[in-house]
């Protein structure tokens, strides 16, 4: 990877926990990755693999090594076929369907799997970890179809694409293209690996697909919470709303810290002092007045969501657990992604509520019945020209469609558990479906936020043009965002196609371009 873009420094796998931010940096190709070369780490990893080898020689039976997988564990594998077993595992799971995960998402998934295996309880060789890290280093990224995981025997099918690629099979992303793995391996002189008995299972039997996605979703949601607060402030100015709805003493009696934080940010943006003794101003509609109560649900959820994701990311999500130190093989269900499933089901609900909130704010601002004297659909056309111009009418309709589509995706996935694999997997998490839904909800909400930002900016510009607000009365933070939008967008006077501008705004949200709050 180009050294010039490695702005986030180095990330070392092995020995320490990784953060959600580090997974995001790796996904974006902004971090240089390496594997710990500490003697103690290398020997701890290898001890697990050696212990397994010795145990196999001594006892002759180890689940997933000398037996079939899952419900087929009663099948014992003749010694001469044991070596072939791992390649059967990734081969029969080569049945993923649907769209492919993006390169960014696939890097996050690969990185999440390495974090888990590097905990040292998966019974693999150090060499396998080296090979996995090498893929990231050389940016040779497995192509992974999105569909086919129930999220509780691990993400078996998606992760089979990582195992297969290590062995030189299937396809990889390289230089932005999908290419056959053999071709890229030949060109880069990467030798395919032959998996040792437990190694196929170690790569596949965990929650890395949903967890990698969860790390990406978390970062985007965190930003959406902040930008929704900033947009609400702009909407409040444009609608000439009641700034005292965000007063500090009002919020001191409702002690949700995240909700208070949002109210405080909006209050500071609005540049007003403490509420007067008696406030005659009318109460605004809920999408303004209750904005901290809606955005606050997400803001207050971020800490526990982070804890769930951090813990899953830095866990050994595998089975069986190989404890080389104490020479134990522990059988359990650590491939079960219940925490990520619940986190993603919850996150998509909280985020979709932002789409809904912003869509309602847009509706108020576009409608002359509610917008306190602004033109219909925020059109900036004047004189007779205003009769043929329709301003943001279609963008408002679009925002309603995106909000509805986001809300429609909030059905929890985790409640759709179904018994599968001959009733061995009779309760599963569906966490990967939850994470994919969550990403989609986030995408749609970013579209609504992009429209809301544009429309709120137009509302403020129209107020400035008609002298109903003064530029100098605005807070530093609002002026800053308004200037940033002015660099990207000019006042909508005559109707024009807004698709390109909207797409640019969405991408600027994803790049965290808009300067928001110091949390
Ligand atoms: N997750 C199962 C293993 C398994 C692997 C592949 C399968 O197709 C099914 C089950 C376990 O550890 O018990």
TrEMBL record:
InterPro entries: Aromatic_Lyase (IPR001106), Fumarase/histidase_N (IPR024083), L-Aspartase-like (IPR008948), Phe/His_NH3-lyase_AS (IPR022313). The lineage of its organism: Bacteria, Pseudomonadati, Pseudomonadota, Gammaproteobacteria, Cellvibrionales. Signal peptide: none annotated. This is Aromatic amino acid ammonia-lyase. Coiled coil: none annotated. It comes from Microbulbifer spongiae. SUPFAM superfamilies: L-aspartase-like.
């Amino acid at each position: 990877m180009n050294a010039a873009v490695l702005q986030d420094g180095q990330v070392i796998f092995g020995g320490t926990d990784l953060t959600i931010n580090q997974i995001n940096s790796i996904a974006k190709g902004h971090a240089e990755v390496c594997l710990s070369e500490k003697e103690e780490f290398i020997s701890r990893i290898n001890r697990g693999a050696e212990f397994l080898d010795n145990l196999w020689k001594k006892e002759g039976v180890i689940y997933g090594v000398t037996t079939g997988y899952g419900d087929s564990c009663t099948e014992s594998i003749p010694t001469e076929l044991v070596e072939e077993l791992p390649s059967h595992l990734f081969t029969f799971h080569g049945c993923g369907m649907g769209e492919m995960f993006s390169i960014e998402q696939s890097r996050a998934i690969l990185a999440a799997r390495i974090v888990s295996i590097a905990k040292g309880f998966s019974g693999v060789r150090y060499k396998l970890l080296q090979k996995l890290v090498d893929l990231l280093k050389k940016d040779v990224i497995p192509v992974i179809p999105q569909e086919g995981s129930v999220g509780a025997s691990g993400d078996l099918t998606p992760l089979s694409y990582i195992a297969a690629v290590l062995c030189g099979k299937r396809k990889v992303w390289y230089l932005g293209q999908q290419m056959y793995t053999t071709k890229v391996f030949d060109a880069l002189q990467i030798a395919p690996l032959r998996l040792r008995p437990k190694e196929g299972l170690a790569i596949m039997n965990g929650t890395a697909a949903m967890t990698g996605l969860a790390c990406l979703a978390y970062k985007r949601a965190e930003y959406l919470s902040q930008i929704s607060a900033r947009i609400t402030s702009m909407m409040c100015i444009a609608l000439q709303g009641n700034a005292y709805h965000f007063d500090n003493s009002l919020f001191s009696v409702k002690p949700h810290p995240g909700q208070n934080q949002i109210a405080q940010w909006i209050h500071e943006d609005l540049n007003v002092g403490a509420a007067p003794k008696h406030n005659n101003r009318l109460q605004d509609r809920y999408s303004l007045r209750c904005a901290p109560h809606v955005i606050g649900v997400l803001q207050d959820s971020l800490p526990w969501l982070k804890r769930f994701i951090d813990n899953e990311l830095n866990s050994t999500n595998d089975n069986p657990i190989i404890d080389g130190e104490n020479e134990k093989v522990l059988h359990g269900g650590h491939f079960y992604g219940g925490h990520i499933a619940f986190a993603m089901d919850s996150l998509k609900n909280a985020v979709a509520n932002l789409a809904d909130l912003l869509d309602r704010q847009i509706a108020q601002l576009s409608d002359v019945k509610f917008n306190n004297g602004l033109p219909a659909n925020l059109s900036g056309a004047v004189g007779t020209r205003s009769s043929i111009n329709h301003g943001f009418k279609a963008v408002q309709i679009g925002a309603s469609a995106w909000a509805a589509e986001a809300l429609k995706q909030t059905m929890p996935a985790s409640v759709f558990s179904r018994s599968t694999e001959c009733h061995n997997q009779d309760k599963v998490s569906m966490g990967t479906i939850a994470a994919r839904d969550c990403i989609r909800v986030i995408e749609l909400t970013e579209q609504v936020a992009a429209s809301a930002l544009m429309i709120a900016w137009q509302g403020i510009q129209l107020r400035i043009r008609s002298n109903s607000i003064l530029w100098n009365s605005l807070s530093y933070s609002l002026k800053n965002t308004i200037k940033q939008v002015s660099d990207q967008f000019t006042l909508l006077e005559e109707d024009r196609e807004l698709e390109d501008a909207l797409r640019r705004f969405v991408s600027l949200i994803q790049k965290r371009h808009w300067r928001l709050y110091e949390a």
